Request: fold
Amino acid sequence: MDKLHITQDDYGYWMLSLEDQEGTLSLLAHHFATPEHLIENANELISEGRVNAVVVIDPPRAQAGGPQSAALAVDAPEDYKKPAPRKAGV
Reply:
């Protein structure tokens, strides 16, 4: 069975990756300040039959400046680039 991974990148943004049965990861969505929208997207992909997968959600990473805010999406660093897909727990 495939896995939909919801994880944070190195900047603290949330992303959604698909891991197929062979272990290949594909990035589906990135640059979200919170994971809620990605959780909703992952559940829709499954309920609509577009993927046969389970959802794996990584716990939030501790942020140096305190709790992560919605302003994070606006204040992207200049060197921000599309992240590599990531498995939860790695």
The radius of gyration is 13 Å. The beta strands are 2-8, 14-19, 25-32, 53-57.
